[in-house]
Amino acid sequence: MDKMPNLGDMAGMLKHLRQMQGELVEAQNELAKEMVVAEVGKGAVTVTITGDQRVTNLEINPDLLTSGNADRLNQLLLEALNNALNESRELAKKRLGPLTGGLGL
Q1: pTM higher than 0.70 for the full model?
Q2: Domains of the chain (ranges, CATH numbers)
């Protein structure tokens, strides 16, 4: 009697998981190269962020800096950063979703 009838299935599954892991790493590397841009306040603040959620650029309209309105600047910065992060998460979901769909990640 064979005590391990599904050993071949397990080897195939491990091979498939290694392949998926390689595809996931490749997709993550590509995602890190993609950029999303969020602009708020009619261009007063612009944030650029990568697909792996690293802020690469932050632009503030000089008029906003000289207006003495720190509260408004704070509000716009938070809004721009949160918008950029949300867009980055959506981008990651689109790119990685097909690879992680059945894994619950």
Answers
A1: no
A2: 7-99 (3.30.1310.10)
